[in-house]
Each structure stands twice: as C-alpha cells, then as structure tokens.
C-alpha cells in the first residue's frame, strides 16, 4: 500500500466522529471613529520604521527626502512615474529592459520603492501581494533599504479585514511588520538581520 | 505507526533533569529569557479585547480539522498540485528523510539552506542529509548558534535560549568561518551582523532550500511560514527548488482561518503584535520564486495520537512555545532534559504520544500540574488533563506487574477503611516518627526517609504526623466544653 493510502486509512480509523462548529465571536469589524492611520503610524514607529505622512501632491518630494544620498533605486514595473519625479539618482525598473537579478539587487547603495496591497493598523503590518506596484518578492527582500508607499484608503483595522481585502490569496504574499529583526539572543528584539535593515513608510492622505 | 526520530528521550526525565539542574549558569539564562518573554506576551495579549474568542475559535478550527483530516488533506493535495507543487507522503521519519534526500540528490546539489522547522528537527533530517553527503545550513540565528556549537535545540521558538550573549559570542568566535573578530562583541546587534555576513553568500547562491510550514491551507494549497529575520524569505524566494516538510496536522480548512492564527501565533510566541515577516505561497508562480516546489506530508506518530480521544488535542498545537515560557519546571531544567525536540509542557504530552508507549514514559511526570500552560495556550490545549490521562494510561499498562507503591497503597487503603485501625495507625506513626522530629526542623517535614520509604522522599518532602490529630483535638474540646 502507498504511504498516502496507508496514512489516509489510519486517519479514517482514528479520527473523532462528527463535525465541529467554529464559533467566530472575535472582532471582524471595528468602530468607525478609530483613528486607524494614527494607530498604524504608532505601531510602525514602535517597530523602528521611519514614517512620513504627506498629501498626494507631496509623494515625490517625500520619496526624494527619504532617499537623500541613495544613488540607485529599484522599482517594480507598476510604480508610478510621479513618485519618482523629484528623485535625483538612477532608477532601475524590474523588467525594463530585463528582470533584475539577485546580484543587481545586492549591490551596495541600492534601495527599493514599492507600494502595498493593504496595511493593518493594529499590528503595523504591510501586505504585499505581488501587485504591479509591488512586483516580485525578491525586490523587497534583497536590498538593505525598503521604502513603501501606503495610501490611507488601504489601511484597515485588523488582520481579518486585511485578508478579506486581498484580490487573490494564491499570489505570493509577504506580510512585513517593521525592519528585519530577531529575538534569538536572550529573547530581546534586535533590528537588522537578513531582510532590509531600514524600512521607511510614506503614508499618503487621500 | 509509532513516530521515530529526535523525539525519543535517551534518559528518564528525573535523571536528565538532575544533570541539567547542576548547571547554575543554565538556570540563570533560562530564568532571564523566560521572564522577558512572559512579560512581553502578557502585555500584547492584554491589548487584544477579543483574545478569548480568538482562542476558542482557534481550538475549534483545529478540532474541525482533526474531524475532517482525510478530506482536507486530499483537498490540499489537489489544490497544491493544481498550482504546480508536487506532494509526497511519508509514514515516519525514515521515510520522510529518504524522500527529501532523494529530491535533493536529483538536483545535484550537495548543500541546502534551511528555514527553521520543527518537523525537520523531529525527523532528524540534517543528520540524514549529512549521511548522504549533503550539508544542511541552518539559517535562523538561533539554529545557526546551536549548529555551530554542535549542540541540540532546547526551546521550540528560540533553540539557543540556554546561551547568553557572552556564550554566543564565544561560539561565533571559535566556530564561524571567516568571522571578523575585531567587530565581534557580545552586543546582540554585532552578533546579528556577524550572522548576516556569514549567511549572505549562501542565500544568494543556494540552489535548494528546505522549510517547514506553520500552516497549510486546504482550500487553496497555500503554505505559510512565520518568521522574524528574513532568512525564511531568502530561502523561500531565491533558490530554484523548495522542499517543505509539513506535519499532517498543520492543515487549516480555509484561507480565512489564517485570520485567527496570524493573530494568536505572534503574540503567543515572541510576544509581538506581529512577527516581522510572514510568507505565503501557493505552488509555483512563474518568474517569482522557486521553479520547483515539493511538499512532504509527514505522519510520524500523528495518526496514533489522533486515535486517543483525550490526547488528540495535542495535535492542535501551533508550536508557539508560550507553555514553555510559563512552566516552572521548564524554567529550571531547560529543554534538553526532555530529550525530545518538543520540550516543556507540550513536549511532555506530545513526545510520548508520537512515540507510543514505552519510550518517553517518564515525560508525563515532568510537571507540577499547576495549569499555567493551559492558561497560556492560544489553542486551549488542556495540557494538565492530558498529563493526568497519560499518567493513568501508564499506570494501567503496568497493572499486572507487582509494584511496591501499589502494595503500600493497598495496605494504606485497608488501614483507612476503618476508623479504629486508622486512629491506631496514626498513634503508631507518631511514636515511630518521634526520633525524626529533631531532624525535621520547624517546618515539620522530612526530606529523606530511611529505606524503603526513601523511594517516596526521592522526589518530595514527607510531612511528619501531627502531634495531635483533628479528632483528638475535637474530642478534647468537647470534654472541656461539657459543663
């Protein structure tokens, strides 16, 4: 008998009888008067991310300010040109003319700019779902400096609302909550291991 | 079929615990670390007003999974296969290791990078790969520390919890190839930087990665890995081939169910509102991540555990390790005393059930039954209940064999069944214990009784019989009050 059939047979013989009802009395909606954007900013700062808030017409200036001294910037195919208008360094766009390689992205002095799909206020989490302004997973992973643009309309209260908003859960998903960190030494959080050590977030009011 | 691998204790718990207790540095490290994490967990759990509702939902989702496991596994297999993954099944650790070894061999690689995974620890995958000439590089910081030290993990979440920063610095200085000794201090930031430099080249050149999975979604065929450092993302994204070893109980029915566990797990494990990185992937995505994706579903004693109506709740476990951090026994003896990759309260009920009767029979006694683990468990596993149940099963299994304890208890029961016999026995005990009273001190307890009663005091103090029993006091009071 194959391992598959044997295991499934053993489970059928061992499992409990009957169905189990799942009570879902936890919160999936939140009071409308909560300042979600304020909460998100507070959580991000707590993770030691750098946060800027600005209006829609100030995105380019804020990007340029946060990237002062950064010579090269990688962007996914769908990042709008207007975000880059004030940046004076070199922009390399993934896929134009060719997909960026790991070596391209590992070059010193390179940052990456992406958007996000949705942001969770309570946990300070940015969800990337490989949409056009987020691109392939390695873009936001290999460079040491990740700059992420969040629109206030993308901010939801909790994890349930965020997962419900995803267009297609089978796309590669990455949940980012602050810069790379570890708690492995005496169980204290230390920022900066293998992922980007610097995370900047621009929250755009609209 | 019984589980095998790194879940079988070589020493009985009391012997192993005695060895570990002799290490004062270990106890100091453990105390410091477990108290740090305990306080953090309490703070972030307190801010979630619906925590109890989330626990109840988490427990029910897992119970539902156990009731529908064959259908859900088939659904997962179909969805993952449709998304481009190849699903394999393994009855036990040897079979799982053989499947993975063969898959790695087929790629021609002799080195793989690994994401921290309890399932691969459990089946002893690194050792099996090494025998096949394949080097497995652990990329989680704590796993790397343990691997460099040639040691074994002592905690589910933080395998190197038994080392403090000074000891970690020494391990890196001695064992990490090419480490920059001038920059290496015992500051956690400097240690993390050394790990980053050491592993970066490996990540960027690795062809094969091996991971576990925290959750496997039946509906979509999606796997999830929850981590902190970004080593997981590196392994899950950059290599050409990804092999994930997943216990069959890691299934959740729907993608929506993750909304419960992604709230419960980070707050319970690292005491954070959310861990820095969570990756979810479904089969192969062209142009993004590995081109070949394998999933190995492992039984290794889980179906045996499922057959026990009381013990099966252990299969709800999401490996957060909150129960270890609150356990007064774990805090003192550490993880190695449990002899399994699953230490602490959850290990005391999981390891003996995975391996079946025989191995690990002392583990259900590695507890004071204080109940702190049940309170901390995000999926409401009633660990004390299962501990008592396993102790009971252990005793039942031995019933036909003679035992001094049972003979003593039987004699005690005869004495206590009759009031006069009991009073006479108490008087005799008081007279008999008079010489011990001097040794007992003010607390009125004896720490070591002479043989054969020494068996009783080997692991507990014995109180001396009182100078006057309640009945004697009551009778005297009645006499005095009678006019």
From TrEMBL, chain A:
Domain LUD: 112-204
InterPro entries found in the cross-reference section: FTHF_cligase-like_sf, LUD_dom, NagB/RpiA_transferase-like
Domain of life according to the entry: Bacteria
Stated name of the protein: L-lactate dehydrogenase complex protein LldG
Organism: Micromonospora pattaloongensis
From TrEMBL, chain B:
InterPro entries assigned to the protein according to its UniProt record, in alphabetical order: 4Fe4S_Fe-S-bd, 4Fe4S_Fe_S_CS, FTHF_cligase-like_sf, Helical_ferredxn, LUD_dom, LutB/LldF, LutB_C, NagB/RpiA_transferase-like
Domain called 4Fe-4S ferredoxin-type: residue spans: 314-381
Span of domain Lactate utilization protein B C-terminal: 397-478
Keyword terms: 4Fe-4S, Electron transport, Iron, Iron-sulfur, Metal-binding, Repeat, Transport
Signal sequence coordinates: none
Keyword Lyase: no
Annotated GO biological process: lactate metabolic process
Gene3D superfamilies associated with the record: Alpha-helical ferredoxin, NagB/RpiA/CoA transferase-like
Top-rank taxon: Bacteria
Protein name per Swiss-Prot or TrEMBL: L-lactate dehydrogenase complex protein LldF
Biological source species: Micromonospora pattaloongensis
Upper lineage: Bacteria, Bacillati, Actinomycetota, Actinomycetes, Micromonosporales
